[in-house]
Amino acid sequence: MSKRLRNILTPLIAVVLGIIVGTIIMLVSGYDPVAAYTALWNGAFGDVYYTGEVIRQVTPYILAGLAVAFAFRVGLFNIGVEGQFIVGWLAAVWVGVSFDLPKIIHLPLAIIAAMVAGGIWAFIPGLLKARFRVHEVIVTIMMNYIALHSVNYIINNKLNQGSSKTGMIHDSASLRSPWLQEITTHSTLHWGIIIAIIGCVFMWFLLEKTTRGFELRAVGFNQDAAHYAGMSVNKNIILSMVISGCFAGVAGAMEGLGTFGYMAVQGGFTGVGFNGIAVALLGGNTAIGVFFAALLFGALKIGALSMPLEAGVPKELVDIIIALIVFFVASSYIIRIVLDRFGKKEVK
Amino acid sequence: MSFMQILMIVIPSTLLWAAPLVFTALGGVFSERSGVVNIGLEGLMVIGAFSAVVFNITFAGTFGAATPWIALLVAMAAGAIFSLLHAVAAITFRADHTVSGVAINLLATGLTLFLVKLIYNKGETDIIKQSFSKIDIPVLKDIPVIGKIFFQNTYWTSFVAIIVAVIAWYIIYKTPFGLRLRSVGEHPMAADTMGINVTKMRYLGVIISGALGGIGGGVYAESISSNFSHATISGQGFMALAAMIFGKWHPLGAMGAAIFFGFAQSISIIGSSLPFLKSIPDVYLLIAPYVLTILALTGFIGRAEAPKADGVHYIKGSR
Questions:
Q1: Which residues contact B75 (CB under 8 A, 6 or more apart)?
Q2: What's the CA gap between B277 and A156, in Å, rounded?
Q3: CATH fold label, B3-298
Q4: Cβ-count burial B206-242 (b if 16+ within 10 Å, e if not)
Q5: pLDDT for res B252
Q6: Does the CA dihedral B289-B292-B297-B298 come out positive or negative?
Q7: Hey, how many other C-beta atoms are within 10 angstroms of the C-beta on A163?
Q8: What pLDDT is attached to residue A271?
Q9: B-chain residues near A332 (CB < 8 A)
Q10: Nearest C-alpha of chain A: how many angstroms from B265?
């Protein structure tokens, strides 16, 4: 079996396995899987309104997935996308409420602010990794909680406009579009999806078509070899974390400038960053893979909202399925062994 | 408010908040000492909290005052069984330990909330009827000064946690089992050469961590939150992970760090009633455990080194 085919088959098998186990869980719990999956499908694609919601949900998932995937390609595990996402969201909203500028300046400025915030948040673990060899997983987890508590503090004490949330951003910084809302019968769809697609193209171009991307990937494959070839491993580690953080920050800007238009005090994590890990893994850490994986998870998440009413099934079933998919993708070693067995039989 | 009074508020509260962290951090020590990274501690706590609460609500009438303790045993068993998923993925299927841990966390939250809706038809459980209550430790409470500060108005679970930490230290550093556990985490190939079953030791490490994580979740649910909802366990598992690292992968160190983090947590909650802490914004106390952990890792507060083979798969025959 060719490597390429295997790389495409493995995630597909993981998705199928996840859905099978989800079905078994429903059967054991006495729910009707057919009704549940029908409700799920209709809740995601049954109406233009729902499709609009799906695309809106997919937008931050793509960017969070790109953030995780980009770091992965350089051999780093950025669990801190959640924290970078939160600070990006806050930075975008902060710029959105504090300035009065023409749209052509204000909107890009808000997005850049989110990029910078996310980038700085990821720069710290990158620097510690490069300078002190501190494992980035632990530092990024800790940075998530620091982000959560600090952002809540800033919202409560600096930007509070009543009921623990910031004021609405000015129209000049908004990604919302009456036209997009019109054609999707008043969903919360906004222009962010264009930015997410640009993000995909950017990541693909940077990694596959530039010298810098070659260096980054080389560091990901083998740090010693990259070092021997004269590349600065430390510089590339820091750079990859910063770029990863920028993606995560922009994902936050999508929520701040598009979906919500404000930021409220967060009781806990939003989950976007952790779903970004799932998206990146399923997408095989490639830009195009991330795009499709985000589409799948976005559709699952939005479709799930219809399940309790239509089929009486708790929406958490979808979280179980997503977790199982991550589990199976992580365990792909065993899937590959099985695939290779089948492959060999065909040869005989 | 006298200094004595302040101590009498702060110390019992610290011990209360520290107990779940101590148990879970010890679980982390067992797992990581055997060479399996366990980001899934949070999920294991969720499972423990869920099963303890459900058992407590269901059987409070049958077992009476003993219910919380039996519920802890149930939480322990549930945590151990659930951690098998992590063990199978990370050890047998050679999954990336961190990814598998993330899957455990996602699965635990999804599964428990799904079950809560299935069983109770609503988003959270009722308040448990039999929770751990405040007690005065007999005999010890009569010691002058110390008795008043440490042994009155406190909880049994906090002291059990400290005893378990000492037992864990004894097991890991003074028994053959502990030596084997550590050797698999430092140099699995050498251990294998000496006839130690690497896979078995690692499975045991993960299962013990699941059991302790389950207890940690159960203690939290039965002494602090009193019910189970999506927000019951929100970060305690990761804080326990931080405590384990801050304690340099040592049982007693982890216990000390967990007590310190418990102190930070309790201060951020009761701080407004203490005169000298009113002026400090609580955000500093909330982020203190995490900032300190980063500093510890960086080497500013004595360098924390992970076991050598932590997170590394052992594949027989490979060099």
A1: B47, B48, B49, B51, B52, B55, B214, B215, B217, B218, B221
A2: 19
A3: ABC transporter involved in vitamin B12 uptake, BtuC (1.10.3470)
A4: bbbbbbbbbbbbbbbbbbbbbbbbbebbbbbbbbbbb
A5: 95
A6: positive
A7: 7
A8: 86
A9: 95
A10: 12
Alpha-carbon distance A70 to B223, whole Å?
Answer: 42
| DSSP characters over A174-213 | --B-HHHHHHTTS---BTHHHHHHHHHHHHHHHHHHSHHH
Q: Model confidence over A163-219: pLDDT tens digits?
A: 788 888 888 888 888 888 888 888 888 899 999 999 999 999 999 999 999 999 998
Cβ separation of A333 and B99 shorter than 8 Å? no
Contacts of A142 in chain B (CB under 8 A): 242, 290-291, 293-294
Q: Which of A142, A144, A322 sits opposite B293 (nearest CB)?
A: A142
Residue B278's pLDDT is: 67
pLDDT of residue B277: 66
Determine the 3-state secondary structure of A75 from DSSP.
coil
Chain A CB within 8 Å of residue B113 CB = yes
Cβ–Cβ of B283/A149 closer than 8 Å? yes
Q: Does any CB of chain B come closer than 8 Å to the CB of residue A317?
A: yes
**Interatomic CA distance for residues A13 and A18, integer angstroms:** 8
Are B245 and A138 a contacting pair at CB < 8 A? yes
Predicted local distance difference test score (pLDDT) of residue B283: 84
Question: B96 and A333: CB-CB below 8 Å?
Answer: no
Residue A348 pLDDT greater than 50, yes or no: no
pLDDT in tens, A227-285: 998 888 999 999 999 999 999 999 999 999 998 988 988 888 888 988 999 899 889 89
Residue of A nearest to B93 (CA): A331
The crossing angle, in degrees rounded to 10, of helices B198-220 and B41-63 is: 60
pLDDT-flagged residues of chain B (< 70): 1, 271-273, 275-278, 300-304, 319
In this prediction, residue A210 carries a pLDDT of: 93
Q: State how far residue A140 is from chain B, nearest Cα, in angstroms.
A: 9
Domain extent listing, chain B: 3-298
